[in-house]
Specification:
This protein has about 200 residues and is α+β, with helices and mostly antiparallel strands. It contains five helices and eleven strands, in the order H-H-E-E-E-E-E-E-H-H-E-E-H-E-E-E. The longest helix is centred in the middle third of the chain and has 15 residues.
């Protein structure tokens, strides 16, 4: 399951998107509003539609974030699994596999990339994201961005990433990844609470 998240967050569908006048203005505003997020907790639903089998797999989970580098991504159904990272240290678990183990972020390439990507989206690290993607505004209400990967390697695997922001433009409401093989993975985030206290034990590996 961790590999599915990693694939989605590192890759990138081709649809008609328009670069509205004022795109940079939108992005600058997002950088300001989302840059003020010091903590975040929300629930999410992950849906993966498999083109080959015309089937959809659904998982539910919880995301916790504390600036600058504490993160918990946890699936609660249908399988309890996830990881927690605090700086250089982390822990991951999977009740189905019966595993629960610590890891060092620097020593685990998969987890390091995954953690970096989730943190970039949670904080909307615009400068870092611009290094990887070209931006266009597909709609203004709600604000939906279409990101095209700059890397030719990534474009062979996934063509596009769609990002829908919350009405307050303070957090990401939906991420949509359409893979080259026709599979679609969507993350919908809800019950989002920003800049509130989070139990420190939940963010401790």
């Amino acid at each position: 399951m961790m590999r599915v998240i990693l694939l989605c967050l590192c890759l990138l569908f081709s649809c008609e998107a328009h670069a509205y006048a004022g795109t940079e203005e939108f992005l600058d505003k997002l950088k300001t509003t989302m840059g003020n997020v010091q903590s975040l907790k929300c629930r999410f639903v992950q849906r993966k539609t498999l083109a080959m089998f015309d089937d959809t797999l659904e998982s539910q989970g919880v995301l916790l974030f504390q600036s600058p580098d504490r993160l918990r991504w946890e699936y609660i159904s249908p399988v309890k699994a996830g990881f927690v990272v605090a700086g250089k240290q982390g822990r991951r678990w999977n009740t189905l596999a019966g595993t629960d183990e610590p890891f060092r972020v620097a020593d685990d390439v998969e987890m390091r990339i995954l953690t970096e990507q989730v943190l970039k989206w949670t904080c909307f690290d615009l400068d870092a994201l611009r290094e990887q993607y070209e931006f266009a505004v597909a709609s203004k209400k709600p604000l939906k961005l279409v990101l095209t990967p700059k890397s030719t390697v990534v474009r062979r695997l996934l063509k596009e990433l769609r990002v829908t922001l919350s009405p307050a433009m303070s957090d990401v409401a939906k991420l949509e990844f359409i893979e080259a093989d026709g599979d679609v993975t969507t993350y919908t985030f809800f019950d989002t609470i920003i800049n509130s206290d989070i139990d420190a034990s939940l963010l401790t590996p």
